[in-house]
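Input record (one chain):
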Amino acid sequence: MIQRIAMQALRGFCMGAADIVPGVSGGTVALIFGIYKGLIANVRSGAHALKQFVTGDVSGGVTTIKEIDWLFLIPLGTGVIVAFALLRHPMETLLVEEAENIAAVFCGLVAASCVIVWQNITTRDPMRFATIVAVAIAAFVLLGFQAGAILEPALPFFLVTGAIAICAMILPGVSGSFIMLMMGMYAAVLGGSIVELAVFLVGAVIGLALFSSFLNWLLDRHEQTVLAGLLGLMIGSIRVLWPWPNGVGVVSDEAEEVISGTTLEWPEASALGTGVLLAAVAAALTLLVVKFAEDKPDHTNAQAPSDISA
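The corresponding structure, as predicted from the sequence alone:
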């Protein structure tokens, strides 16, 4: 029991650390650890329970809550929150001072994740291949948009940002942090006050409740197509993680500065070797972690809640 809680908290910490980095998704980390479907199913059940309470179905809400695997969700959520609290300022510094190296490491992580998702796509027909290609191209193009930072945003901006960013954070291949950069809210959230972060969290809860139900429905009925789409998202997201010349881009609260990490430029020869080496090591370590987890399962998903009709 204690070991399971500790491991789940560690997974949450890794997800939270990934979510801070523009270009990397906590959902990608959840896929690597093999907890993605369990995460979506449990969150969806929580959203359904909330809906039942709001509509006055108290007994139904209590029944649904009892079916949720709280030993799955609470340690995971705690790890995410702790990672954000401890790493948001150091990561902001690293993204400026070691931008290329940080991006290279996470580029390797995403590349390994692509291999993992590909291995789980068992229906490799023309429709799935078309889905991969179409989504990859769309993600690649959309991630090229740039935006300046919003100075002193009002509280409603934090609410909307939280609702949108959390949807991206639970999708492998879609970086919630990069979405915040595109919205001009990344620096504001990292440096936000307690009140601003609380409003952001409320928005995240609302967005997660709405989006998780839809995603769980898709996974139940169209899992192979969803996996193909997720693979396309991860392939397209590598545009943000190409670690030159500016890593994942400018991290600043200055309005005149924009995201520059999506520019497509070939690195100098002196920087190429280091970046490729870091990406290769990160990819290899990721695949080794997955292999170890497969050999020593801890039954994290064993108590995912049963399907609940909406």
